[in-house]
Amino acid sequence: MSCCDLAAAGQLGKAGIMASDCEPALNQAESRNPTLERYLGALREAKNDSEQFAALLLVTKAVKAGDIDAKTRRRIFDAVGFTFPNRLLTTKEAPDGCPDHVLRALGVALLACFCSDPELATHPQVLNKIPILSTFLTARGDPDDAARRSMIDDTYQCLTAVAGTPRGPRHLIAGGTVSALCQAYLGHGYGFDQALALLVGLLAAAETQCWKEAEPDLLAVLRGLSEDFQKAEDASKFELCQLLPLFLPPTTVPPECLRDLQAGLARILGSKLSSWQRNPALKLAARLAHACGSDWIPAGSSGSKFLALLVNLACVEVRLGLEETGTEVKEDVVTACYALMELGIQECTRCEQSLLKEPQKVQLVSIMKEAIGAVILYLQQVGPEKQKEPFVFASVRILGAWLAEETSSLRKEVCQLLPFLVRYAKTLYEEAEEANDLSQQVANLAISPTNPGPTWPGDALRLLLPGWCHLTVEDGPREILIKEGAPSLLCKYFLQQWELTSPGHDTSVLPDSVEIGLQTCCHIFLNLVVTAPGLIKRDACFTSLMNTLMTSLPALVQQQGRLLLAANVATLGLLMARLLSTSPALQGTPASRGFFGAAILFLSQSHVARATPGSDQAVLALSPDYEGIWADLQELWFLGMQAFTGCVPLLPWLAPAALRSRWPQELLQLLGSVSPNSVKPEMVAAYQGVLVELARANRLCREAMRLQAGEETASHYRMAALEQCLSEP
């Protein structure tokens, strides 16, 4: 058989490729072409390779590309099987006068024909050819050779068919196809556009696995695409806007890529464009903002102008998308613009190293206020049937980001929306699994068909907590939140989230947002304790909350790295204990004693005596664990000292318990060992408040303080109230 005959037999694969366009019944095909059946019989009865070659050639000549249907393809497969194509793919000896790749080309053509049948595309004999097929994509050879080009086309046909099956992407990734596709694309040889298309499909289907198996090669493709994007002057730059989000890695984006991407986006967004040109650019910018924050935007005048332009365009798009009546909202574009607005909010509220100058911040806040007004108006029109839609979740998210920083503007509109927000948060809290799914849907809607990077919170309540913390300070919004049942919802949420941090759960895998959410809940409860004490006394949910705080604090204060959360829990518990002092749970029960013992530990370990060079007397200094976070901790500490002081006369058993802990004695000892000049007046006042109440409440406390030179220490620090109390019998 000649080399030309072999090439002709290879056309069988082309027949298989086009067969999906025509699916006549098998009996009709047989009646039109009875010769085909004789040749298939000859193919089945072939005893050696030469006879199989001859029969394949006859079959090829007997059918036309448009005449072969799925059943006929299956008949051909039943006659040929995999053994013959396997030998063709692995043989290293070709007939005289034939290039060595011709036999492989015929083998690939047969596989391409077979793979057009979905069942055969998942056959183990096809899947185990993936590594071999992948090598064909990068094999060197004459780029103008027709047989080689045909083999490459057939190879892509096979791999694409496998990728279209449920588990196909995993098999391709494991078989080294991703790296081969990257190299084929970067080589810009024949079929490189098919390589890119298949890469896009694999990344969309299994991004994490792709990056795990072929990160260096995918980064090389990203560098190439980014450079092309930066240089593009034609319509290809808009096509690249749609491709590039898929090639951004789940980890760090190379700096050179960020520079090219930002430069390309600056040129696009700085021009007058139609919406179909601008929207992909905004979505790419949103993807970068979500993955990298503002790190991809250069510092200086050019960067600040670009960021201002980006946020401005996003706000305009949000208003156009939400305010225009009679048109369908482009949810993917508007959601991407939400991500850009979040970036603007972050930069406008950043005090140090902000990309924006103060006049730019003022201007952008005004523009974002108008866009947020459109978001509020949209949410006011959302009915119960739409509450589980991803776009509603995205709209609540951007509103939550705004309220976390700004509640004074749009106050009337926000108050009108609060009942909806409480109901919405409650709905998603009660259906937590659906809420988590909504979070991923929002990410997909806004950014790309793949994981956008850092995980977005899966519950609406966590998004709203910072804003509600501000709003509970104000009378009007607080009354609305109480009326709508927000405090009860927050208590349930806190208890649920606390369970995630309890013993038996691996806290190392929890996102930081869980602990931050717990702290923010504590701040809201602190606001309610101060501004609505009657609510704390009458609502049973706060009794449950108090019980949880009491049982949790002893273990929490012992855990490294969780001091700030312990401070929130201790201070909140102490303030609530003053209001709930008549509760049976606080009458010296083991839980209450454990809680107050842990609270004393938190309050007593904040300061130590520290020696100073060249001085005989030590100074009062922050202990190492407290020093690094004192800016966030000190308000809670002072409030905790004040709350503990208020609890002493309300709980008769507390003063003896404090004496047994030796806190008053050690406190006086600490004050006696440091220079009075090193103790700030507010510290003196806090210490005196605790010591005075303990001394007044219990005779044994007074005696212990006198034995610790309490009167002398009180005199040195001008603690007149303590000095007078200790002078009494």
Description:
With 729 residues, this protein is mainly alpha-helical. The chain contains 40 helices and 2 strands. It has a two-stranded antiparallel ribbon. A hairpin with an 8-residue loop joins strand 1 and strand 2. The longest helix has 40 residues. The protein starts with a helix and ends with a helix. The N terminus is likely disordered.
Give a brief outline of the structure:
The protein contains 40 helices and two strands.
Shape field: elongated
Q: Briefly note the structural class of the backbone.
A: mainly alpha
Biggest β-sheet strands, sense, barrel: 2 strands, antiparallel
Helix content: over 70%
Low-confidence runs: 1-31, 447-457
Number of DSSP strands? 2
* CA radius of gyration: 36 Å
Q: Strand-residue fraction?
A: under 5%
Sheet with the most strands: spatial strand order = 1-2
Integer average pLDDT: 86
Give the count of helical stretches: 40
Distance between the termini: 122 Å
